Every structure is written in structure tokens, then in C-alpha cells.
Amino acid sequence: MRDSLARPLHALAGRVDPVTAGALAAVVAAELALVAGYLGVSGTTAGNVRYLLYPFVWLNVAAAAVFAVDPPTASRRVRYAVGAAAAAYLLVLAYFGGVLDLAHVGHAHSHGGASGLTVFTSLPPGWGPTVAYDHALFSVTVVPYQLVGYLALAYLAYAALLDTASAALSGAVGLLSCASCSWPVFASLLAGVAGGSAVASAVYSFSVDLSTAAFVAAVALLVWRPGAR
Questions:
Q1: Which of 107, 123, 168, 207 could bond 127 through an S-S bridge, CB–CB 3.0 to 4.6 Å?
Q2: In the chain, where does DSSP find H-type helix?
Q3: Domain that holds residue 37
Q4: Is 100 within the bounds of a domain?
Q5: Is 137 a domain residue?
Q6: Cα dihedral sign, 139-213-31-34
Q7: E strand or H helix at 139, and its extent?
Q8: Structural domain total, the chain
């Protein structure tokens, strides 16, 4: 039985030569410098520093996972079919993650009141520049770290679907991966079961913490794929 955990880890280790390691260290140093610079000019309190770091957790985990995983070879027909499934999966992530909003059909859902394109450039690194587009039929809000994270999940799902013949496993991994973007659904269910707004407030107050933890877990599951033959 193939060791599905060791394979991507060995692949990643084999690619991290001294030059690559130096480049990674430089990237992390640049990220920390960006955070430090933003702290210096924004006056953000220490209690909120984690929100400045979370985007880089998404970006670095996504990059490491994509770097470690190579989709297996397959026929063109299979690759097209799996690619379509991965694209649909990306749309699901975008919808439940709040990137794509179809709930305001017939309305000008706005970030500023009118339909059209808006770019928010004053946000912290990783959060911005956020691009928002409002249309009468839909709205799209693109946050950089979320975009990279969801694209990475779709790529990993593509590789997983090519690499396994177990539809049940693929479905389970997909559901767990979607938890990284659909925590509000679980928060609402939790609040309903508990019967109190205090529970919902507690969950929503840690929304970014929960979504980041779920994203990291989802990436780990898609790379590791426990039980895969």
C-alpha cells in the first residue's frame, strides 16, 4: 500500500535545495517586514497581530502544498473531466466562501452603493488590495489570500481526483475542504442547536481563526489523503 503521506513530504524535501531554502527564508522575512511595516504605520494593537499573519499562513501553506504535489499522468479525456470537476469545486468554494454572491439577484448589492468595480487599497498586506465587482445579478469580492487559498484547494482536489479511484474518499475530502470556507453555515447550525445568540457571537468573533485552521486542515487532507491506495 502506498504511503500517501510520505510521498508528498519526500517530494517537497527533495525540492528544497539550499537555493530554494534561501529563497523561502527571504520570502518569510519579506512577509514579516511587511507586517512590521504595517504595524508601524497603522498603530494596530498587538492583540490583532494574528489577523495580519493569517493571510501569510494561507499563502505559504498553499504554495508549499502546490509545490509538493504533482498531478499524476492521465489521458486527455480524464484530465478534462477532472478539470471540470475541480472548476466546479472552485465555484463551490467561491460561493460558500463569500467570493461569489448570488443572493442579491435583481439588487445592486454594494460595497459602496452603486454597481461597478471597486478596489480597496488601504487594507493590510494579504487582505488587500481587495477587488469588489457588483452587478445586478451577482457580486464578486476577491481577497488576495483567499483567492490563492481557494485556487490551491482546487488544484489539490484536481490532483487528488486524478490520483484516486475512490469516489467516497474524494467526496469526504471535498466536504472537509469546503469546511474551510463554509464555517458560517456550521456557526448558524451551532447557534440553532444551542438556542442562544451568545454561542453564535463567540463563533463569529473567531471567524478568521476558524477558517484558517480549517483551511490548513483541508490542505493537509488533500495532500495526505488518508486511506488512499
A1: 123
A2: 6-15, 18-42, 49-68, 76-96, 144-163, 167-178, 183-194, 197-205, 207-224
A3: 6-71+148-224
A4: no
A5: no
A6: positive
A7: strand 139-142
A8: 1
Give Cβ neighbours of residue 98 (< 8 Å, ≥ 6 apart).
141, 181
Residue 174 maps to a domain: yes
Return the SS3 of 134. strand
**pLDDT, mean of residues 200-225:** 77
Residue 173, C-alpha cell as written in the block: 475530502
Q: For cell 512590521, name the residue.
A: 36
Do the beta carbons of residue 192 and residue 102 sit within 8 Å? no
Is residue 61 one of the residues assigned to a domain?
yes
Task: For 105-132, write each residue's pLDDT tens digit.
Answer: 444 444 544 568 889 888 888 888 899 9
Cell triple for 133? 465587482
pLDDT of 201 strictly over 90: no
| Bridge partner residues of 140 (DSSP) | 100, 133
Report which of 207, 159, 162 is spatially closest to residue 181, judged by C-alpha positions.
207
Q: For 12-26, how does the pLDDT look when each residue is reduced to its tens digit (9 = 90+)? A: 555 566 777 778 888
Q: What is the mean pLDDT of residues 119-147?
A: 87
Q: Give per-residue pLDDT as tens, 26-84.
A: 888 888 888 888 877 776 665 678 888 899 999 999 998 998 888 888 788 888 888 99
